[in-house]
Amino acid sequence: MFYEIRTYRLKNGAIPQYLKVVEEEGIEIQKSHLGTLVGYFFSEIGTINEIVHIWAFTSLDDREARRQRLLADPRWQAFLPKIRDLIEVAENKIMKPASFSPQERGALTA
């Protein structure tokens, strides 16, 4: 498994608006293409105005194919402007679990 960890730093005070539009519209579009959502988080303590979402993929090729389908979806293209201006900084990491990680032992499945 590979895990994509997407971290966004939002404009000050934008978390409620961002979460509302994602919950009402965006997350279902993402899940229909990306598959396994491991978690979706917002900062409470520490770095403020931060959103982190984690997606699981069976391979990097799986991730690439799923992200291409998402980007081609007209619903996603219509949704993007609703969050784009709320995001100031975006970071993306691809992580692979260690052999002893619960995720690697099947606690999470795609």
From TrEMBL:
TM stretches of this protein: none
Pfam family, one: NIPSNAP
Domain NIPSNAP, chain residue ranges per copy: 3-102
Highest taxon in the source lineage: Bacteria
Gene3D superfamilies found in the cross-reference section: 3.30.70.100
InterPro entries: Dimeric_a/b-barrel (IPR011008), NIPSNAP (IPR012577), NipSnap_domain (IPR051557)
Family to which this protein belongs: Belongs to the NipSnap family.
This protein's name: NIPSNAP family protein
